[in-house]
Amino acid sequence: MPHMTALLGKDLNCSIARSLEVLGEKWTLLIVREAFRGRTRFSEFTDSLGIARDILANRLGTLVEYGVLSRRPYREEGEREREEYVLTPAGRDLLPVMAAFAAWGDRHRPSESSPTVLYENAGSGELAELRFTTAEGRILDLADVGTRPGPGTDPV
Amino acid sequence: MPHMTALLGKDLNCSIARSLEVLGEKWTLLIVREAFRGRTRFSEFTDSLGIARDILANRLGTLVEYGVLSRRPYREEGEREREEYVLTPAGRDLLPVMAAFAAWGDRHRPSESSPTVLYENAGSGELAELRFTTAEGRILDLADVGTRPGPGTDPV
DNA sequence: ATCCTGAGTCCGAACTTCCTACTCAGGGGT
DNA sequence: ACCCCTGAGTAGGAAGTTCGGACTCAGGAT
User: Fold this and answer.
1) How far is CA A29 from CA A46, A135, B19, B38, B101, in A?
2) For chain A, which residues make up each domain, given as ranges?
3) Which end of chain B has fewer CB atoms at under 10 Å, N or C?
4) Does pTM top 0.85 for this prediction?
């Protein structure tokens, strides 16, 4: 069972491609979304997503393997011990990915009930949004943001 | 050829799921990444990604269909007219998605050559980063950001 | 001892992706 | 006019994934 993700597009020098190696398979990001919604158990994931159990077992395995989720034993009142899956710090660092997808979907594929999730400063309850900012915190308009080659670029 | 994307997880009330319907298939986000890198032509995409031509044709078609790319005719010196694929405004709005994946990959799956792309204010060249901010522009630490149900949540 | 349940595994059918070969629309060369 | 060339596909079969249902296994409950 070598598991061997397919090395998409040979370009492992790209951090987007490296992220997609972990997160880019069907269902993976929806599993992560459910984890952010507080689901932890195998049956919670199958019930909320309708994913086949073998695929779920496989995806949970790779997410654990890559440190997005961790397995943790739990025991329910009068049940035997089982494992649940909780977001690690690396998993919680996917919040911007979730927020970016959600913002794009809200803007460009709206449904009747548009934003289902908002972000806030957990301490104060102030609303928060994912934006590009300068180092000093000035919010930039997305249209003004450009890219430039970083230090890790191949010097070809 | 009904094209019928699989309605992942029945939950179309989720903007993440709706985004993934367009963007979640294998190769799609790498094609978008290449589009941000300035590629526009069929052969540029096959050359840089190594994707099979039939899959590329299919993905470009759905990206056009959903308004992420648009087809535009071009004519090279002494060649016949062909079509190229350029990001629409909706496509350019995927920059936060790209940046979020890139940041996660840089942090959690680093390679020797870590950040290959940086973001900047296109006018001034000041560095920019994708962060959660309050309405007034105070940058929040990711660990302090939480979620709350938005107005579009099912009132169940 | 037997039943029950959550969490899997197994397996064959259905669907995707991959790879190679073919097509098609012009433009250029002769 | 005819043939060759190239970019951009399409076609078709092999290989790889996903799906859904049946099976397993480890306890605890009865």
Assistant:
1) 14, 30, 11, 27, 12
2) 10-144
3) C
4) yes
Residue A140 and residue B125 in contact, taking contact as beta carbons nearer than 8 Å:
no
Please write the tens of the pLDDT for every residue from B29-77: 999 999 999 999 999 999 999 999 999 999 999 999 999 999 999 998 8
CA B9 – CA A31 distance, rounded (Å): 10
What is the arithmetic mean of pLDDT over A81-100?
A: 97
For residue B43, say whether its CB is under 7 Å from any atom of strand D: yes
Alpha helix ranges (H) inside chain A: 15-23, 28-36, 42-49, 53-65, 89-92, 95-108
Question: DSSP letters along A74-96, please?
Answer: EE-TTS-EEEEEEE-HHHHTTHH
CA distance A129 to B131: 8
Per-residue confidence (pLDDT) for residue A111, from 0 to 100: 85
Judged by CB atoms closer than 8 Å, whether chains meet at B140 and A121 is answered as yes
What are the structure tokens assigned to B95, written together?
A: 């920059």
Cβ–Cβ of A139/B140 closer than 8 Å?
no
Q: Do A9 and B48 touch (CB under 8 A)?
A: yes
Nucleotide nearest to B45 (CA to C1'): D8
| Token couple for A81 | 């011990």
Q: How long is chain B?
A: 156
Dihedral, A43, A48, A52, A56 alpha carbons, nearest 10: -60
Query: Among 3.20.20.150, 1.10.10.10, 3.40.309.10, 3.40.50.920, what is the CATH number of B15-144?
Result: 1.10.10.10
Over the stretch B19-41, which tens digit does the pLDDT of each residue have? 999 999 999 999 999 999 999 99
The stretches of chain B forming alpha helices (DSSP H) are 15-23, 28-36, 42-49, 53-65, 89-92, 95-108
Identify the CATH assignment for A10-144 out of 3.30.420.270, 1.20.58.1480, 1.10.10.10, 3.40.50.920: 1.10.10.10
Whether the CB-CB separation of A149 and B117 falls below 8 Å is answered with: yes
